[in-house]
Amino acid sequence: MPVSVILSDFTPMRLGEGIPQETLLRETANVFALVQCAIQKPESQEAANRILIETREMVRHYGVSAGYIKQRQANAMENVEITDEEDDIYPDILPRPLQQPRGLPISERMEKFRKAVNGLLEQHYADCGQAPDDIIHVSCTGYMSPSPVQQFTVRNHWNNTIVTHNYHMGCYAAFPAVRSAQGFMAGSFALGRPKSRIDIFHTEYCSLHLNFHRLTPNNIVNMTLFADGFMCYSAFSQDSFDAGRQNGLEILSMAERLIPDSEQEMTWDLGENYFEMNLSPAVPFFIAEHIRDFVESLVAMAGYKLGDIKDDLLFAVHPGGPKILEHIRKRFQLAAEQMRFSWEILYENGNMSSVTVPYIWHAITCDDTIPKGKLVLSMAFGPGLTACGMLMEKV
Amino acid sequence: MPVSVILSDFTPMRLGEGIPQETLLRETANVFALVQCAIQKPESQEAANRILIETREMVRHYGVSAGYIKQRQANAMENVEITDEEDDIYPDILPRPLQQPRGLPISERMEKFRKAVNGLLEQHYADCGQAPDDIIHVSCTGYMSPSPVQQFTVRNHWNNTIVTHNYHMGCYAAFPAVRSAQGFMAGSFALGRPKSRIDIFHTEYCSLHLNFHRLTPNNIVNMTLFADGFMCYSAFSQDSFDAGRQNGLEILSMAERLIPDSEQEMTWDLGENYFEMNLSPAVPFFIAEHIRDFVESLVAMAGYKLGDIKDDLLFAVHPGGPKILEHIRKRFQLAAEQMRFSWEILYENGNMSSVTVPYIWHAITCDDTIPKGKLVLSMAFGPGLTACGMLMEKV
């Protein structure tokens, strides 16, 4: 008997309010300039002013504009205001930019992660009547053992809930997490002890790793694109979905592939102060080149031919950045409407790493204009380069 | 149809030779003493000598003796020899103990990890005729994205091999990895695209994180107990196992549980120079207190009563340290023979974190005196505290 797995109960969470992108661009430039002063040690006020002007110009030029992203959660930037007055407020991860331009050591940032995630767990599960069979904790921004999810689980005496860490897989990590959930569900049936609900808990506290020390075009893109994001959703068996859920996305097929010769194009590595990202402008080209074969084989796994269904498909694509969305639209000659959720989530939130695609899934399930039976092709990309895809049906 | 999963093809790997525990105890004490001199800055040769004598005494007193562990792979300690002469050789992660007593920053240690794991992959898969369906990369000692496993996979044009990271779960991580493999196998059958072989690739380069800066009894235990370990094995479907494997371990049941009120007893956290471990001497007591219920329910899941099978079971227990093994033997009133593989692997290798239990599985499958049909109860423990268990049958 095939075991169906349906994603539902998408619940976004927040640590703080979204900050307007205009504000973030301005203050990001200001903090960059302070750190440049710490590095370059200008000998006159004039030289310092020149640094400020040049830095603002670079951030204006390379930063992701407010036309693409309206606001982002970036909790490390909350209340930051630099006016060169005495009461300037610096990012909490960079309390003394002139003296310690790399900011807090990684261990202190991890403590902030623990505290934040702990609060989100308490809040999210406050009214939870029934413990899940599993919680898969997804993150590429905070690692500690025991994790806050393990601590929460044991504190609640959820003795039969199994916690699994899905760490350090970057923007595409919702896909291995869903793949694991589908596997744990099918595996539980195979071992004769069927599970009913597996929670997937994403915590991407990206702003913990803001790196004001590297004033380069690529890093300015990272600093103005990525956002914090938090989300919990569940993978249900057919029976448990039927017992009370209104809508969801049923998994029809899944695929992942590494793209040749692209390993240097996107990297995410541990450092002494922050995790460090390198993201090259070539990423959209690599993806555009390889994506067609990948998608054809993904839909074929579910018994479809891409040509037959393409014009009616929703493309729930991870908005790594505006360029990736544009390349994919062109590659498949899509109508704007077919990718609108990707653009909307990017505009409303920025790139929230692994949480971005679940936000899109959430929007699709909530939108009454998308009928049940609609096929949804979802994709994300991350270091490797890794391409992940899933064909789902709205149910 | 239930999907059987059988573990087989256990292949230990090495970066270097095992170093006699006597040598490691001596040189660990010497390096600790150098770092203590860097911290305390003694003002006379006499004061420095006193530090050396006291440090040696502490390491002798608290370190794990050569009676329990004969040798360990500890690649960061290779060739280390401190005789107070000019040609002293320091650990490669601590090239200037007097000037930089915390040693290399974490980013440089991660580069060593990448290089080492890359070499092991090339060597292990040199004669591999067929690419696996999946590789699950297990580690709590090195994270980078793309990982060396991803880089290797794409370099080999293994386009249909899916890589999953199982990171930061500590000593018990073989269990979630096998649970994932069992899930991916069952999930592939559920989606109508059955897999045949899922590789589990463990790389625990523990000596990268040796911390000579904290001269405490608990840390001396860590420093003289843990070892590097590397292993690949495979999870096979019944059909692919039958097509050529001689012996293996079939999974009958699996369980994991968090132990209440024990979250502070073992921790593993990121730091600026190394990942930092805290391990309290209370761990064996927590485990002994909770283990009986856990094991009873684990064997019940497979349709057995513990009392009926206990005296004939092999206990393949993670030798976290000698104390844990002693507590478990007493708790279940086991014959020494029932746990001998745990003692032997500890003696021959030390605690290799997540790789230790797969070494025990390997030894059991290789040992012709253990007949097919033998039931094997395997357990491991790690941060949480998390207890993991699996009932298997030798096939």
Automatic annotation (TrEMBL), chains A, B:
One of its GO terms (molecular function) is acyltransferase activity, transferring groups other than amino-acyl groups. InterPro entries: Chalcone/stilbene_synt_C (IPR012328), Polyketide_synthase_type-III (IPR011141), Thiolase-like (IPR016039). The keyword Transferase applies. The keyword Mitochondrion does not apply. Keywords: Transferase. Coiled coil: none annotated. One of its GO terms (biological process) is polyketide biosynthetic process. Residues 251-394 form the Chalcone/stilbene synthase C-terminal domain. Belongs to the thiolase-like superfamily. Chalcone/stilbene synthases family. Gene3D superfamilies: 3.40.47.10. This is Predicted naringenin-chalcone synthase.
